[in-house]
Every structure is written in structure tokens, then in C-alpha cells.
Specification:
432 residues; alpha+beta; 5 helices; elongated
């Protein structure tokens, strides 16, 4: 009996891939927080806070909106899209609509309490990664102004889907480098919107003491640079080093060493004593292998100076520079230099030796009975003798003998083959 194959796991994989391709993949979900004040399963809670000397306190104003309240005030107008990467890095807008359902602009929720709405400096809520998604006071304005920051007049909003899911979405800004994929997520229960009435949104920058191009295993110290006029003192910083490691510290200058090659985006979030908050743009740090040390110029070489180059180690000596160094040059003079006159000829001195005609060869020795031609170096140089008529005749005779020998061998071989052929034919005739 044939055992049926299990196709369920493969089918599930295919369905999951198809769902991702059709935009049906699950969206990011934020962790469940505290329960709703009313005991409802899902709600939006707006809390106004203030921070003084690093202490954040509730101002006593807390608003709760149930799903039914949101549906009653919501609208389905407009289409929201996402972009994960900046346009300069090849990021494109995903044309598939998101946050489909009844959407309520966050500014509209705040304006339901007009006495408090004007005191808001910025709003934050935690996204699916636990990182604050923030909105400035300008982001909460009503669309229509010339400096409105979001494209197509869309507003940051909370929304409720037809199936009853609660979510948060921020539209793309007019800047082509903006990304909003991390500011779109669902909440499993309570969604908190914290409205700050003190402090502002900051724009810190990451600074690397060793620059942005480092050698492998080299250390660098990071620091957060804040704009001039920032109010409050830095209380905490949270560093993301781009390699999966993070560090939350009160120290503003952590030291980091990377153990692998690559490009790492480093970012920092900062909070100050008056409640201000800011998250920097990532600073890309490139890590590469250190360059190889040049070979030393010692060793080898000849008596002219060892094994280096032009720098004194050996090989060729350094080139002469006639203008190198300070050389005292004599001043020009119109006087002619003194020339020594040739001394007067003197009479020869009689040394008792008789002059001998001829020449002397160093190291030459005449052997007994020998002739001057036997002394090395005294022979006349001889050129190759030209070919004579006798030598030409001898070469012709040699080639003639060689040709005759070849013809004789060929003839003997042919005669042998002829006798063998006759013998074979005679045998075949007898057999026939």
C-alpha cells in the first residue's frame, strides 16, 4: 500500500510566500502595555506629561478612546503608502495601500481637548521595535498650510480595520529621503500617545573620533553632537552600533571596536533634563582590513651598499643632486688664475745603461729554442682561410658517395620486395 505524502508543510510555505507577495504578510505589532482604564480590550490613551529636572510627571489629563469612538470619528479618505529605504539608496514607494479602515488624525484627537492641545510640544508612542515614533507640533497642524510637512495632505493617524484591529500610521513627508515603514504598526491592546508639554524634538548627530573609515580591530569613540541652544542637560543616550549591539548609558562617549569588515549605520537617541528627545540620522562607518606594511629596505645588495633602494639601504646609490645642501660658491673675479709655467728642460743624466731598441712584454718568457711567435700575444691574428678548389671538390665527392649509398639501399629494398611478390604469386597460382 502506498503511503500518502505529507504536503502540508510545503503548502504552508507556498501560502506564506504568496501572502507576502500579495501584501498579506503580518504587519509589525507593538507589545501589549497596561490595560485600558475602562477595562476594554483595545483603546487609545492620550496622556499629557511634563518634565522638570529630569523628572517626568503626569499633568492629570488622560483621555481614553474606545474602538467605537474611533470608528465614529474616523474617515477612509486618502491612501497611505510606505517606503523602507531613502530614495538616494534606491528606495521606492510601495504602492500597496496600508492602514485601510477608519482613520482618526492624531491632531484631531488632541483638539478634542482644546485647553491642552495648544500646550503640546511633541507626541511620542512606541513602535513595534520599542523605539519612539515622534511627531512635532508642526506635524500635528491642520493640512493646507504652505509648510505642511506631509505629502498629499495626509495626517498621522490611528486607525481601526474592519476586523477590529487597532493601528498607528505616519504618512510620508514631502522629503524624498523620508522613510516611514517603522511608523506603521498594530497594537494588541492599549495604544499610548504621550503628549509632552515641555522640551522639544532634537536633531543630534553622531561623531566618530577616528572618522568613518576604520581598520579592522581599531577602536573609535562616538559622541552625540547637539544643536546650539539646546535646553536641558543630556540625561541618557541609547546607542545603536549597527552590528546588532546597543548600549544605553549615561555616558555620552562610548568606545567601540568592530571585529568584522562591513558598513555599519551608527545612530543615537538622546533625552535631556527638560524632556527633550531626539534620534539622529545613521552615520555609516566602514570597516576594512588594515593596509599591509611596506617591506623593509635592509639585506642583500652588493659592495655598493646593501639591499635598499635610493634611501641608503643598498642597490643603486642615491642620485647626485648638485643643488642639495648649502655650498659656498666663490665670488666671481675679473683676475685670471695663476698658471704655472713649464719648467726649463734639463740635460739627461748618464745612468750607465745602454739604450736597446725593441719592446718588452710583461710576463713573456722565451723558451729555449723558441721563436718570438711562441710567446703569447706576439702571434699575428689569422683570419679564416677562404675555401680552396680542393676542399670544394672533396665536399662534392662526399655528397656523391652519400647519395649513391642511399640509392643502393633503396634498390636493395625494392629488389627484396620484388622477389617476395614473385614468390607469393607463384604460390597462389599453384594453389589455384
Amino acid at each position: 500500500m502506498r503511503t500518502p505524502r505529507r504536503r502540508r508543510p510545503a503548502a504552508l510555505v507556498v501560502l506564506a510566500l504568496a501572502a507576502a507577495g500579495l501584501g498579506l504578510a503580518p504587519s509589525p505589532v507593538s507589545a501589549a502595555g497596561e490595560p485600558c482604564p475602562s477595562g476594554a480590550a483595545s483603546c487609545v490613551v492620550v496622556t499629557y506629561v511634563q518634565t522638570v529636572d529630569g523628572q517626568t510627571t503626569d499633568t492629570g489629563t488622560t483621555l481614553e478612546y474606545s474602538l467605537n469612538d474611533l470608528k465614529a470619528q474616523g474617515s477612509t479618505a486618502g491612501v497611505y503608502n510606505l517606503r523602507k529605504n531613502p530614495k538616494s539608496q534606491g528606495g521606492k514607494v510601495d504602492k500597496r495601500p496600508v492602514a485601510v479602515g477608519q482613520r482618526v488624525p492624531i491632531g484631531q484627537l488632541l483638539r478634542l481637548d482644546p485647553d491642552r492641545a495648544t500646550t503640546a510640544t511633541f507626541v511620542e508612542t512606541l513602535n513595534a521595535d520599542g523605539v519612539p515614533a515622534v511627531l512635532s507640533a508642526a506635524d500635528l497642524a491642520t493640512p493646507g498650510a504652505s509648510d505642511y510637512p506631509f505629502a498629499k495632505g495626509l495626517q498621522p493617524a490611528v486607525f481601526v480595520t474592519d476586523s477590529g484591529k487597532l493601528g498607528y500610521v505616519r504618512p510620508l513627508r514631502n522629503d524624498g529621503e523620508d522613510t516611514n515603514a517603522s511608523d506603521y504598526f498594530f497594537s494588541t491592546g492599549r495604544l499610548d500617545l504621550t503628549v509632552h508639554t515641555t522640551g522639544t524634538l532634537l536633531a543630534p548627530a553622531v561623531v566618530s573620533s577616528a572618522g568613518t573609515e576604520l581598520d579592522l580591530d581599531a577602536s573609535t569613540t562616538f559622541s552625540a553632537s547637539l544643536p546650539e541652544g539646546t535646553s536641558g542637560d543630556v540625561l541618557t543616550t541609547r546607542w545603536d552600533f549597527g552590528d546588532g549591539s546597543t548600549k544605553g548609558t549615561k555616558r555620552e562617549q562610548p568606545t567601540k571596536t568592530y571585529a568584522k569588515r562591513g558598513t555599519y549605520p551608527v545612530s543615537v537617541t538622546v533625552r535631556t533634563s527638560d524632556g527633550s528627545y531626539g534620534r539622529s540620522a545613521p552615520l555609516e562607518v566602514k570597516i576594512a582590513n588594515p593596509p599591509k606594511a611596506p617591506s623593509s629596505g635592509t639585506g642583500g645588495g652588493s659592495d655598493l651598499g646593501g639591499g635598499g633602494g635610493y634611501t641608503g639601504g643598498g642597490g643603486l646609490p642615491a642620485p647626485f643632486d648638485p643643488f642639495e645642501g648649502d655650498v659656498d660658491q666663490p665670488a666671481p673675479s675679473d683676475e685670471l688664475p695663476d698658471v704655472e709655467e713649464d719648467p726649463a728642460p734639463t740635460a739627461p743624466v748618464d745612468d750607465g745603461l745602454e739604450p736597446v731598441e725593441g719592446y718588452v712584454l710583461a710576463g713573456a718568457e722565451t723558451v729555449p729554442g723558441g721563436t718570438p711567435e711562441t710567446i703569447p700575444g706576439t702571434q699575428a691574428s689569422t683570419a679564416p682561410a677562404p675555401a680552396t678548389q680542393a676542399s670544394t671538390r672533396q665536399r662534392i665527392a662526399t655528397w656523391a658517395v652519400a647519395a649513391a649509398a642511399v640509392l643502393l639501399l633503396v634498390g636493395l629494398g625494392a629488389a627484396s620486395e620484388t622477389r617476395w611478390l614473385r614468390h607469393r604469386l607463384r604460390h597462389l597460382r599453384r594453389a589455384a
